[in-house]
Fold Red chlorophyll catabolite reductase.
Amino acid sequence: MAVVFRHFSLLSPPPPPPSPSRFPPPRSSFVRSAASSPSRSPSPASSMEAADKFMEFPHVSAPHRSLMIGLVSAVEERLGPQLLPCALPHDVRYYQNDAGSARGSLHVRRGQGSSKVDFMLGSWLNCQLPTGGSLNITSLSAYLNNSTDAPNFLFELIRSSPTSLVLILDLPPRKDLVTSPDYLSTFYEETQLESRRQALEKLPEAQPYFSSSLYIRCVVSPTAIMLRIESEAGKAEQLDEIIESHVSPVAREVLGIWLDKCAAVDRNVDEEDGAYLERRDGITKRKTIEIDLGSSFPRLFGPEIANRVLDVLREVYGV
């Protein structure tokens, strides 16, 4: 979820939290602080609020919030007629643990009819850390179906402190780039995605980010932007300025490329290629659940809420 949980997404999970008796688990969804305690059923009021929580992005800075609202709005405005309304259960759209130390929101809109969009998935997570402070993760991804072989879209911003963040921005390929040079040229060279990556990598505050998962490193593109950005101690406003002046423009440009060159363009996919894409996409989606959520989510949020959210995500991913 980096997706929300993927969306724990392309990131390795944070350090294990202290035992539930000392401190509630960090990271995302709103599971209960103790894995063995039962979860609360949402009240009617909280159920009514759940649909609106996602677009609030309530725990991040103003530039971070503006960026996420802009990206989600751009996708929904452009692809809106192709997308069904979000139909997730209220206790998955928004949830939190009893201690109030971890909360999150999940938003999914599936493609309809002849749309090339399989689904778009957005999420945010907020949790307190044992060291003090909080961890905030916001993510947006869009998956295409096997009527096209164009890349998917992935964006995730993880802020572990006021002065440190990890950025992941990519159009993950859905074909082998070694055996498909035209695909590499069409989606990565002609779109000049590399220039966007280099622009952010040249920031003095930026350094490459390497996922601990070798699998994750294999599924991203050669132009993937995976950076750790850190400002000087005590200068949170410096990081917000970087988000507003550098990260946001690049993210909007890359999303625009995806909307124009991937989501809006018809690709000739024959039956054999369609079957290959279905198999490949299925593997990627299963790995997303296993790597991003399968082990970390129950440990951090307890079995009841973890199972509830994971069951919904498995259904969305079709795995």
In short: The longest helix spans residues 236-263. The domain at 44-317 is CATH 3.40.1500.20 (oxygen-dependent coproporphyrinogen oxidase). DSSP finds ten helices and eight strands in the chain. The CA atoms of residues 198 and 263 lie 25 Å apart.
